[in-house]
Design goal:
single chain, 2 domains, elongated
């Protein structure tokens, strides 16, 4: 009886450790991707000060002379390099920033973690009575199901549970996203 209790307790500890490892892997993938994008941005970017002042001057100049040529109206107010820096800064924030991070996360998972994560998922069994967590559990079961097939993308015929997992604004403009 004591041995059975010991083995049961030990199996719970192993399960907890596997869950912790899975959480750490997912967290590490995200943090490394963010660091890489931030490092790339810092190397590429010269921080602009007074962006709103620059935009105000450009708008004021454009409105006061709507028929004017860009070189004659905007460039005297804001030089070309400042405009280029402004474009870079806007490009490296917001949706473009998030998209870069997601691209790096996908690449990192695809090249390194794709072999490790399905092994951990195969050992664990996920259950929940909460309806909110059901899409995630269905997605995990789908990953388990196709982990040994060698497919890089899930078949189009497969019902992919993206509602409740992928935010609506992250999938805008896509009819049927490929899931990998």
């Amino acid at each position: 009886m004591m041995m059975a209790a010991f083995f049961w307790l030990r199996s719970m500890e192993i399960t907890d450790n596997l869950i912790e490892l899975l959480i750490q892997i997912v967290h590490r993938i995200g943090v490394r991707a963010e660091r890489k994008v931030e490092k790339e941005i810092l190397n590429d970017l010269r921080k602009l000060s007074n962006k709103y002042g620059i935009l105000f001057n450009m708008a004021q100049s454009a409105v006061s002379n709507p028929e004017g040529v860009l070189r004659d109206v905007i460039i005297p107010v804001v030089n070309e390099q400042t405009l280029r820096d402004l474009i870079k800064e806007i490009k490296h924030t917001g949706p473009a920033y998030r998209e870069k991070i997601n691209t790096i996360i996908r690449a990192s998972y695809g090249s390194h973690y794709r072999r490790m994560v399905p092994e951990i998922l195969g050992i664990l069994e996920f259950r929940s009575n909460n309806e909110v967590h059901r899409p995630v559990i269905r997605a995990l079961e789908l990953v388990k199901k196709f982990s040994d097939t060698g497919y890089h993308y899930l078949p189009m015929s497969e019902e992919i549970p993206i509602d409740g997992i992928i935010l609506t604004h992250c999938r805008e403009g896509r009819e049927r996203p490929r899931a990998n």
